[in-house]
Every structure is written in structure tokens, then in C-alpha cells.
Predict the structure.
Amino acid sequence: MSNSEPLPQSHHPIRPGTAFRALWRLALDNDDTAQVFKIVDALRGRSDVRSVERMRESEIGRAILAERRSLLDVLADRGRPRAMAEGSLGRGYLAFMEREGLTADGLAAASDDGYTQRSSDPDVRTFGDWARDSHDLWHVLTGYGRDPLGELCLLGVLYSQIRNAGTAFIALLGLLQVPFEYPGAPAVRAVIQGFWIGRRAQSMIAQDWEALLALPIGEVRAQLGLSRPTYYEQSAPLREAARSRSRAAATQTAAA
């Protein structure tokens, strides 16, 4: 069944074989974002339904669901954050996306490639899109980069917020590898701290991101109760393309 054919919301069987195959492909190319969505999809069970229930507990969460808000429409317009003040979340997001060569549409396309099952419940679909499209805002606010360790730490935050087993699956298996990638650094503690930061923070799903984009990044962090990722900062994350297993990074190095 293609991802264009929605399934009933209760039909999300756990598929560990699919998750392990996607994890293997992700290990070969850590820029293959579609594999992350495949893992999340294979192990989500009813976590998205429970997340919708938590969204309904807040006024803004209910509004997002009722109005079928689209964050993608907001973030795809780069002229809007470019007109915002220096130091704002919008400008920080724009700088991050341009530095990393990312687009909001690109993440949405990776999601479409990764998900094989889409719920027929419009609230679940709205939640899923809202969570997906806010991902890079989470990078900016938490301070976690797109290096392998930064992504693992952010998955820890994401699991504590959404409780999807797929995110924990990737992060915990990544703990077996990071000591070798970051010898002598508190990399394992950095990932564990990610879980803790996500647990202590306010809900990062039920947020009016369109309004928050104009606020100073520090103010938004304070509102959400986000702690500094001190162990990640101490771990000197791998940023050199030559040490990345990403095909995209290897291509960039060869072209330099």
C-alpha cells in the first residue's frame, strides 16, 4: 500500500525487520533522512494517537488541530524570516537552513519517501506534519547540530516529547557507536542528556511557531524551559566532511 492511501488510525503494526533494514541504510549514509522516517514509521504503534491526545490538552494545540495549520507554508517562505530582527528565532532558523543547504520542502519529501502508512485521522495527520516541519527549529533551539552526535541527542529530546519507540531505537543503538566516533569525549552522556532536556522542557509540539519566529532565540528557549546541552558542547562534534559517512558530505569534499 502506498503512502497516499491512508490507513485506519489503529492499524500501525510494529515492523522490526523494516526498522533494522532502514537502520542499516542509515548507517551507510547518515544524510539519508528518509530512513529515519522509515524507522519511526515502523515502530510508532499508537504513539501518534497518544501525542494528539496530549496536544488537545492545550489551547494552542487544539487550535493547530482544529484549523489544520501548516507550518510548512510558513517555513518555506524564506522572505519572512529574512525580514526579522537579528537574534530572532526566524533569523536563526534561516541561517541554519542556508548553512546546511536544507529546505523545509526537502524534509517533507523525505517524510513522504519514508512513511508507508498514513493515518486516516486528520488530527493525526496534522500532528505528524506539524512535528515533522518543526524539526529544524528544534535543532536551532536546542543547539544540537546535524553531525551524527547532534542528531542522536536531538532524537533523545524527540523521544521524551513524543514517545515514539523508533526515535529511542536509533538513539540507543547510536550509543554503541559514539564512544568510537568521539574518543575521550562525554558523547554517551551527551545523548542521555538529550533525553533529560526533552523531558524537562515544555511541549515543543503544541507551540505557535509562527508567532515564536519573531521572538529572540533566548526568550523562546526560556519559555520552553530548554537547558544547555553542556555535554554535547564538550564533545567537539564531528563537523569535518572527511570524517562523515554521508555520501553527500563525501561528494562535497571531493568537489572542494
